[in-house]
Amino acid sequence: MFDYNRIKYICNKYIVLLLVIVTFLLFEQCIVNAESKIVKDDNQTQYNGYLDQIFNNRGGLNVNNIQRKWLDIAYATQSSTQKLDIFLPNEGIGPFPVIIAIHGGSFVKGDKRDFQVVPIMKALERKYAVVSINYRLSSEVKFPHQINDIKAAVRWIRANGGRYTLSTGKIAVWGDSAGGNLAALAGTSDGVTELEDLTMGNPDQSSHVDAVVDWYGPINFLTMGNQLQQLPNNPRNSNVSYIGKSKEEAPELYVAASPETYIRSGLPPFFIQHGNVDQIIPLQQSIDFAAKLESVLGKEKVIFEIIDGANHLDEKLTTPENISKVLNFLDSYMK
């Protein structure tokens, strides 16, 4: 006969053992998750500190020496952030071709009068108008509202530029880092209704741009994570703060936020520069972007240069010689 008490004892013994094993495995996984979170948090803290150091140590734009200017003009009404500054050359009657300056800052910081716009202001000496814009940051809204803002600003310039002696038929965009992404996205997504919010104003105007300057912008969010892992000492964490969801949760948003997605014939010319020791945005992003643009637009419409020894936000790109090179590119299409 079966000894039910013996069987019950053995079963209880193994149940207890199983519970101990499961508890241990769950505890171990909690430790792994906690350690992973600590690493990610440390990475993000390191990255934020890197950005803060650069933003705090470089001077902003001094507007006092610019005689003809209009500051803090609202181009939309959803947010107090949606404002732009217009700067004209001190001499000349215009109308002046327009360069829209789009600041970077990982979509979390930056301003239309910080250090990033200072080198672009050299364009005033070439008889360009510079329109520097703010857009809503990721702490306020997620993608696609940032590109909605850029396109709304372009439409506003076309609708209102005449009163400021702006040549509304000649508009270029120039951005670095996150601003490079938005400049590139404005260039590739002309006519893409999903990235345009016409309720923001001037729906009868085009958001087309005539030339793009992209300094080390993120281009393909689906591939960037893996590329970041190949970089030594990279402090970046992810793009969740900008897009709002992880790549696994919403891959379609990562595709939609990537300028590479919309490459097709008929796009404006591109000037792309990227440092070969950039620790924030992998160089491969620009290499792949330039190659794909060239395959569709032809080499004559795409200039790609690797800046030797340049890191992210590096002043090697803002030398007078390099700024002159960028302006020479713009002259060939904007004048």
Looking at the overall shape, the CATH architecture of the largest domain is 3-Layer(aba) Sandwich
Number of helical segments? 8
Class inferred from helices and paired strands: alpha/beta
Q: Mind telling me the CATH superfamily name of the largest domain?
A: Alpha/Beta hydrolase fold, catalytic domain
Helix content: 25-40%
At the first level of CATH, the class of the largest domain is Alpha Beta
State mean pLDDT (0 to 100 scale).
88
> Which descriptor suits the 3D outline?
globular
Please, how many domains? 2
Give a short account of the largest sheet: 8 strands, mixed
Q: Major sheet: order of its strands?
A: 1-2-4-3-5-6-7-8
**DSSP strand count:** 8
Commentary on this structure:
The chain is of the alpha/beta class and 335 residues long. It folds into 2 domains: 1-57; 63-334, Rossmann fold (3-Layer(aba) Sandwich). It is 39% helix and 15% strand. The protein has 8 helices and 8 strands; from the N terminus they run αββββαβαβαααβαβα. Strands 1-2-4-3-5-6-7-8 form an 8-stranded mixed β-sheet, with helices on both faces. Helix 3 (178-188) links the parallel strand 5 (166-176) and strand 6. Helix 2 crosses helix 3 (178-188). The longest helix is centred in the N-terminal third of the chain and has 54 residues, at 4-57. It is globular and about 90 Å long. It starts with a helix and ends with a helix.
